[in-house]
């Protein structure tokens, strides 16, 4: 129990930190928000259930009024804004990512984490984000999809990075992935 | 860690948090079906009035809190300007601003401890499902305590990187950062157990 709570809380803090550090830049030098990277890592490292709970805990703190979402956003206004769908999809994204890593044991860590992150952090997350934004901006789903397409490339890159980080962690310290233990 | 509560003390700060949240929920539901430019403009003006009634400085904070919305307002303006249905775009934009601003108003006038108290009250029915209020409270406290700790460590790691490499710090730093978080978690778990557990 204590162990689960500690892991969930520390990874919630990790998501917050990844949203606050703008210095993490891609090869192109474009600063990106690493927050969804944190969400994918939660699932891949902690597994489906604990990963989703870590993201939920992070969101609770955001709703309570801490400016922890990337760009210093926070408060319940986040749920009323156009990106509410993404926020709601965060825990589900972590869950799906974790589920793939947990269930697909025969695959190498890097592959399972990558497929999991693509399914959770892109397919599922954009599904939620798309519906939320379409409702808020009064657009049809295809119209909203057009608005979101430019961001998919960056997020696919983040899934690859999340997979490499997960592999790195499991290499440096075998057995560290709760999702596989 | 700084919260989004406004340092400008207003009358709204003194209202109970639960009442404000309930009012926000009702208002949001009421605003959703609003149609037509004039009613939407009225709703937004009412929200703006609510801010201005708390003074200029407070209203200024409120405007800054709305900054993340501007890309979406720009999209709406371009889209509906192009499609020649400015009225429809204006209604969507006005309602969006009104709803987000109202929610921000609650965040800005409610202290963190009051919000946590509401959360604990709302979470009470879940105690039977295994989510004890103590676990929730400890988890929230841990995140608030460890976010600055991890942030400071991320900055130290980035400094160490810069001292050794001509290239800019990149995602590779997340590996030691996450390992540190995993180690911290083990230690926190032991510390919690040593103090009698949860």
Automatic annotation (TrEMBL), chain A:
Its topology with respect to the membrane?
A: Multi-pass membrane protein
InterPro entries documented for this protein: BioY
Keyword set, alphabetical order: Cell membrane, Membrane, Transmembrane, Transmembrane helix, Transport
Q: Which GO terms describe its cellular component?
A: plasma membrane
Pfam families annotated for this entry? Answer: BioY (PF02632)
Q: Where are the transmembrane segments?
A: 6-30, 51-70, 76-101, 108-135
The molecular function GO annotations come to: biotin transmembrane transporter activity
Q: Where in the cell is it found?
A: Cell membrane
Instruction: State the family it belongs to.
Output: Belongs to the BioY family.
Name of the featured protein: Biotin transporter
Automatic annotation (TrEMBL), chain B:
Which UniProt key words apply to this protein? Membrane, Transmembrane, Transmembrane helix
Residue stretches spanning the membrane: 20-53, 65-83, 89-110, 131-151
Record flagged with keyword Transmembrane helix: yes
Q: Which GO terms describe its cellular component?
A: plasma membrane
Q: What is its main location?
A: membrane
> Topologically, how does it sit relative to the membrane?
Multi-pass membrane protein
| One Pfam family recorded for the sequence | CbiQ
Question: Which protein are we looking at?
Answer: Biotin transport system permease protein
Classification from the root reads:
Bacteria, Pseudomonadati, Pseudomonadota, Alphaproteobacteria, Rhodobacterales
């Amino acid at each position: 129990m204590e162990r689960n709570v500690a892991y969930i809380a520390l990874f919630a803090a990790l998501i917050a930190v990844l949203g606050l550090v703008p210095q993490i830049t891609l090869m192109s030098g474009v600063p990106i928000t690493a927050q969804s990277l944190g969400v994918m890592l939660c699932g891949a490292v902690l597994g489906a259930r604990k990963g989703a709970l870590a993201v939920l805990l992070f969101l609770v703190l955001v709703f309570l009024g801490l400016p922890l979402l990337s760009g210093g956003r926070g408060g319940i206004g986040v749920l009323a804004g156009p990106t509410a769908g993404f926020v709601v999809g965060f825990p589900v994204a972590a869950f799906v990512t974790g589920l793939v890593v947990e269930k697909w044991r025969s695959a190498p860590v890097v592959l399972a984490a990558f497929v999991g992150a693509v399914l959770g952090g892109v397919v599922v997350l954009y599904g939620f984000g798309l519906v939320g934004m379409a409702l808020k901006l009064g657009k049809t789903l295809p119209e909203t999809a057009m608005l979101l397409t430019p961001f998919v490339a960056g997020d696919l890159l983040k899934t690859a990075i999340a997979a490499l980080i997960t592999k790195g962690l499991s290499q440096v310290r075998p057995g560290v992935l709760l999702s596989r233990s | 860690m700084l919260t989004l509560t406004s340092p400008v003390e207003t009358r709204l700060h003194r209202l109970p948090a639960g009442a404000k949240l309930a009012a926000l929920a009702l208002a949001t539901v009421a605003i959703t079906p609003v149609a037509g430019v004039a009613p939407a403009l009225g709703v937004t003006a009412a929200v703006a009035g609510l801010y201005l009634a708390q003074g200029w400085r407070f209203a200024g904070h409120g405007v800054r809190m709305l900054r993340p919305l501007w890309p979406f307002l720009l999209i709406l303006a371009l889209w509906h300007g192009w499609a020649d249905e400015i009225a429809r775009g204006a209604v969507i934009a006005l309602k969006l601003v009104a709803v987000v601003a109202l929610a921000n108003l609650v965040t800005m006038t409610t202290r963190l401890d009051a919000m946590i108290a509401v959360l604990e009250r709302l979470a009470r029915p879940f105690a039977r499902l295994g989510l004890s209020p103590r676990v929730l409270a400890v988890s929230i406290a841990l995140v608030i305590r460890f976010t600055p700790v991890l942030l400071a460590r991320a900055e130290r790691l980035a400094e160490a990187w810069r001292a050794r490499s001509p290239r800019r710090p990149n995602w590779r730093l997340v590996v030691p950062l996450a390992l540190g978080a995993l180690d911290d978690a083990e230690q926190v778990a032991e510390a919690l157990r040593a103090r009698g557990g949860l």
